[in-house]
Predict the 3D structure of the following.
Amino acid sequence: MALGRSYSVALVGLNGYIVEVEADIGQTLPAFIILGLPDASLNEAKERIRSAAQNSGIPLSRRKITANLIPASLPKRGSGFDLAIAMAALLASNDVRSTGRTVFIAELGLDGRLRPVRGVLPAVMAAVRAGFPDVVVAKANAAEAGLVPGARVQGYSTLARLAFDFGADPQDLALGFEPDPEDDDGDACPDGAPAMPPDMRDVSGQLEARRALEVAAAGAHHLLLTGPPGAGKTMLAERLPGLLPDLGDTEAMEVTAIHSLCALTSASVRLLRRPPYENPHHTATSAAIIGGGSGLPRPGAASRAHRGVLFLDEAPEYERRVLDALRQPLESGELVIHRSAGTAAYPARFQLVLAANPCPCGKASGKGVDCTCTPTMRRRYLSRLSGPLLDRVDIQLEVERVSLADFGQPGSEEDTATIAERVAGARKCQLGRLLPFGFETNAQVPGRLLRGALRLGPPTTRILDHALERGVLTARGYDRVLRLAWTLADLAGRDLPGADDIGQALNLRQAAATA
């Protein structure tokens, strides 16, 4: 036959689309043409495929080969289409039998090896959802692809072995060639011994900050820590992921898919069960935090922190437009990035933790007698954290210096496991209350529900109502205080928040502003 057909997957963000690959062998002079909006790396597949087929013992036809990737209007990027194009071309020249509805996702080396590619997990998920459960990938990607329920995954090391299994004549195939095992790992990093997670016992003193961290973990609330250098702000933020419960199956699949797209998973991949932690440097650009890049946009630190913690240390040192770009995902839990090459949507439901000094020199806390900053310098420094951004941060706490009495007394405070147990209990209470409404944590509860089915009586919210009337709180801030109060009640094991919970929640939100 002069026409061959196979299938692959094109990724736009985390969304995958089945691509039908057609290969036609014409009667004209030798040429290799790829149609269907390929990018530069995909256009280079022509030479990779020819060399790989030649070195595998099944050279492509010397006549004109036209490969068409359908739908033609969908941009195609990356080297993951190499194998599908090669199989379609071999099928067109009758070198292999029909591949049926098998999806091929792999890059080809010049010697015929199948190389791993990024984003195999979301690609296989898309294939299974579209009704294409049979998938062929490079052996180094097989473990990752096998995580998808319902997928029938086959991993191969060489094109020759794959062609043999699909009916190629074994007489000329280079079946004796097998790559070294270490060469199959591609870009993957070997698993190392798990690092010991930071423990809350390492934090000396800071009882109020420890309590705020527990509340933030229990309700998935955002947190701002303001205090002098050395007060323990970074130590506290690093210990927040340890307080969070393990991810469920659906959440773990989402997180692993994002990290697969960023090539952050290893060859012996497992579902990422622990909440991720991202700590970008304050010189990071908007594309590094939010996502972007040339061509179709790629995920940034905010999406890699999905279902985990995004910590921005020295937050006022970030560009203001980078910080304000976080306002959308803080509300919606999703990032939609528009570029000239297309639009990509990535999940970004993270807990934001901001850390800031009280002034540029960092000595304005307490009496501030050693501070050399003028009032104008302090205002300019803190004004980089815009009002609309801070309005979305539930807990705003002033962290004081550690006193000599608290310093250097390990074992005097609760460890991470003890606090995490209370957090898990509070999360269980929230899930039982909110699951009928389609939510999991207090931080997700919308205002209509807080003023509807979960409405508290006027005597309970009196102090909050007065704060709203005086302009101390915005309407958004009012709702966020209510969410904090529900979390405090869940930690205490109460069915409903009381007036004391409202007062504590209001204090947690305004502590940094009034300190």
Remarks:
- DSSP finds 20 helices and 18 strands in the chain.
- Residues 328 and 471 are 24 Å apart (CA to CA).
- Residues 3-185 form a domain with the Ribosomal Protein S5; domain 2 fold (CATH 3.30.230.10).
